[in-house]
Design a protein that fits this description.
With 489 residues, the chain is an alpha/beta fold. The protein is built from 16 helices and 19 strands.
């Protein structure tokens, strides 16, 4: 138990010794949404108050209003130790060339007024565009140049995090939602973190402020004023509604009274106690509400076995958030401030484009750019009427690089993304798939491959054949082909 008047710290790496409560600056965007921009020097004064109490690790992003600029003013002030600035780069899907990636990072460096970013966290909207892996390799090169100290990701599910790690990306962190309401990060991601060096940075631990005394025993809100609460109310709704949430809140309140702390302290302590969590990100409403003293109380107590059992009983009366971490940004049910993100995702460029076939008028085809499509004379996908046939697909990035060498499960994830990208070019999706055929070279890979297939097709359940073959050309561990029948109105 911490008896000092400062938050506990965690050594993420030799470069980063962080406060276990990071100060999140996402609400800068909400404060500035009416066009009034925070004076950067005044904002830096507010951040300095947090740093003076030991909360000297700040989390922001390229789209959090002027948060990077404000933090840059703070970093320019002499202070030992220097505060840490973690930022995110969230590009729209598209080609991730060295120039594109460097420009994105240069902009972060400029806005922060630094020569090196402490932790650059990469977010990718749709894994159907394979350039996410290109971007991470380019970030790794920039790290070797000294422009980035460490690399993390945000809202990556376990399967894509595993794919990145198996492809040699030196990831340090994954920033995901984790709270008494959203407990997904305690399952698949927790298991992966145990097997790797990746740690989680948890956000949403207070559900936008809903996990507090203010909402205990209160009627369900009808008009929600800020983006953060709009978002987390969706989490409450999907897990069983207001009554189930009140059950969790009541249990947390009883535990808080027992330890003479706040509900927010209990909610945050529960997340921090998971061994794969390096820190939690608590939002700061700069210039309006400061919770420094309450956050310090977080380190004055511990949850005991009875406390955890009481919370587990409350969890049993609610439902789990569907899917894995990050799914809320990429597929229904979208759990964001704006709700349905399909309109946003629909505007993003596809990995491929469909073209009309020259030899018949009722067909379209998709070419992925592989050199073998011209050499051997085939298309990645061919559509005739409503039927779509997808060629045997391997985990190939670019023209010839094998992704995740030696990891059949990760290769399967990458392959299925490629198949779905080809289908998307023909206005089809996973729900249209009626058959898959899987070829593997090692029988011991059956479970890993099957789990990766089941993550996407578990509810759809297309006809499937899996066979072990003597070998695949090029040293791949997996090859998959698919058939789909596009549904018509």
């Amino acid at each position: 138990m911490n008896t000092n008047n400062h938050p506990d710290r965690f050594a993420l790496s030799e470069n980063l010794n962080i406060a276990r409560v990071l100060t999140g600056l996402w609400q800068v965007a909400d404060i500035e949404k009416d066009g009034t921009i925070i004076n950067p020097h005044t904002g830096a004064d507010w951040l300095a108050d947090y740093a003076a109490k030991g909360f000297d690790t700040f989390d922001m992003a390229d789209h959090y209003g002027s948060a990077e600029i404000i933090t840059g003013k703070l970093l320019a002030r002499p202070r030992d130790p220097r505060p840490l600035a973690f930022t995110k780069w969230c590009p729209a899907p598209g080609p991730m060339t060295p120039d594109v990636v460097r420009a994105g990072i240069t902009d972060r460096l400029t806005r922060l007024s630094v020569d090196r970013i402490d932790l650059l966290q990469f977010h990718w909207w749709s894994f159907l565009h394979p350039a996410w892996l290109d971007a991470l390799h380019e970030l790794t090169r920039l790290r070797s140049e000294g422009l980035i100290a460490e690399i993390g990701v945000t809202n990556f599910d376990a399967t894509h995090l595993q794919t990145a790690l198996s492809d040699g990306i030196p990831l340090l962190t994954n920033q995901v939602s984790f709270s008494l309401v959203d407990r997904r990060a305690a399952t698949q991601l927790a298991n992966l973190c145990k097997q790797s060096n990746v740690k989680l940075l948890a956000y949403g631990t207070l559900c936008g402020g809903f996990l507090s005394e203010r909402w205990l025993g209160q009627p369900e809100p009808q008009n929600i004023p800020d983006w953060s609460k709009m978002k987390y109310k969706r989490f409450i709704d999907i897990t069983g509604g207001w009554d189930g949430f009140q059950g969790i809140l009541s249990a947390a309140n009883r535990i808080a009274r027992k330890h003479d702390v706040s509900i927010a302290n209990v909610a945050t302590r529960w997340v921090l106690d998971h061994p794969h969590v390096a820190g939690v990100i608590v939002g700061a409403r700069l210039g309006e509400r400061v919770h420094i003293d309450d956050n310090l109380r977080l380190f004055s107590f511990s949850l005991d076995q009875d406390d955890r059992a009481e919370l587990a009983d409350a969890f049993a009366d609610t439902q789990d958030v569907p899917g894995d971490c990050g799914d809320e940004y990429r597929q229904p049910p979208f759990l964001t401030a704006s709700g349905d993100l399909s309109h946003h995702l629909d505007t993003m460029p596809l990995a491929h484009a469909a073209t009309t076939t020259a030899h018949r008028q009722d067909g379209q085809q998709v070419l992925s750019g592989s050199k073998w499509e011209d050499i051997a004379g085939y298309a990645r996908a061919q559509q005739i009427g409503n039927r779509i046939l997808v060629s045997g697909t391997t985990a190939t990035a670019g023209s010839d690089r094998i992704v995740a060498v030696g990891d059949a499960g990760a290769q399967t994830t990458f392959i299925i993304d490629k198949i779905l990208a080809a289908l998307a070019a023909l206005d089809a999706s996973a729900g249209d798939v009626v058959r898959t055929r899987i070829y593997i070279v090692d029988e011991t890979d059956v479970e890993a491959v099957s789990k990766a297939h089941g993550r996407v097709f578990g509810d759809i359940k297309p006809a499937n054949t899996l066979v072990v073959v003597a070998g695949l050309i090029g040293g791949y561990k997996v090859e998959i082909e698919a058939e789909a029948v596009r549904q018509t109105d």
